[in-house]
Design brief:
By secondary structure, the protein is mainly beta. The chain contains no helices and 25 strands.
Length: 296
């Protein structure tokens, strides 16, 4: 095992290909790819200041470590990495990496981060930035706060617990998403997705939950949400709150205490294929000219 303590490194590929490293109190200054292709690395109390620090690395453990803004595009093609109690300031930080474990980390700029990655576990963390998690798969979140649009676009196999999302266009083009005990706030939720489930959640979404195949919702409130369930097939939905408006569901079962406006356009769907259980429906429109499209 090679040990470095309280050192400042500068220069390109300064520890390229190193194996069995213990780094404590290290600052990596100007110089690209300081730990490219490194293996079996334990890093504590350290700082990365420059680009591409951990490409093609394997078996990396980081604790109390900072990735500053210019350490962008930092962890690409890396396998088996864990980061704990750390500040992640750089954008585009993860790409095509696998076996990622993050606990108590703060992404201050997660723009275009965690793309095309797999086998991800994130707990007790904060994520800020657009397009987080694009095209990634096998994802587990618990006690995570996400603020940023287009989160998990095109992702697969996602399980979420006790988390909060403030995100426009969250979970678009996804497959196999299950969210428990969480809050989701943002327009156009989960369009063009398949096998989506919300259990014990609170949702607020303008024109959310449309163009979905197999949507299950249990013990969940849908607050100030309009034109929901448009072209959704195989509904299994139990809402605990009033729904502002429902538009043209394709098939399945929908239960809610109240629906202000129910739109069932027989030219577009067969209303008989959806069972609607509701004690109070304000208006039923059989034909509608409400052809609203999502905004940019």
């Amino acid at each position: 095992m090679i040990n470095y303590n309280n050192k400042y490194f500068e220069g390109e590929r300064i520890l390229y290909g190193a194996n069995n490293l213990e780094l404590d109190g290290i600052t990596f200054g100007h110089g690209e790819s300081p730990l490219k292709e490194a293996k079996n690395v334990n890093i504590k109390n350290s700082i990365f200041k420059w680009k591409y620090p951990l490409w093609y690395a394997k078996n990396v453990e980081l604790t109390n470590t900072t990735f500053e803004t210019m350490s962008r595009s930092g962890i690409w093609y890396t396998d088996n990495i864990s980061i704990t109690d750390s500040a992640l300031q750089a954008p585009k930080l993860f790409r095509r990496a696998s076996n990622i474990t993050l606990n108590n980390v703060h992404f201050s700029d997660a723009e275009e981060t965690m793309w095309t990655c797999k086998d991800i576990k994130i707990t007790n963390s904060e994520i800020n930035g657009d397009y987080f998690g694009k095209d990634s798969e096998n994802i587990y979140l618990d006690h995570v706060s996400v603020i940023g649009n287009y989160v998990f676009d095109g992702a697969k196999n996602i399980e979420v617990h006790n988390s909060t999302f403030i995100s426009k266009d969250a979970f678009w083009n996804c497959e196999n998403v299950t969210i428990y005990d969480s809050t989701i706030d943002g327009e156009y939720l989960a369009w063009n997705s398949k096998n989506i489930k919300f259990i014990n959640c609170k949702i607020e979404s303008e024109q959310g939950l449309n163009y979905i195949d197999h949507l299950e919702i249990k013990n969940t409130s849908l607050i100030h949400s309009d034109l929901v369930f448009e072209y959704v097939s195989n509904l299994d939905v139990e809402i605990t709150s009033k729904i502002d408006s429902v538009k043209n569901p394709i098939s399945g079962k929908l239960s809610a205490p109240e629906i202000d406006t129910l739109i069932l356009d027989g030219d577009k769907i067969n209303p008989e294929k959806t069972e609607i259980i509701c004690a109070k429906i304000g208006n039923v429109l059989r034909h509608s000219d409400q052809n609203q499209e999502p905004k940019d």
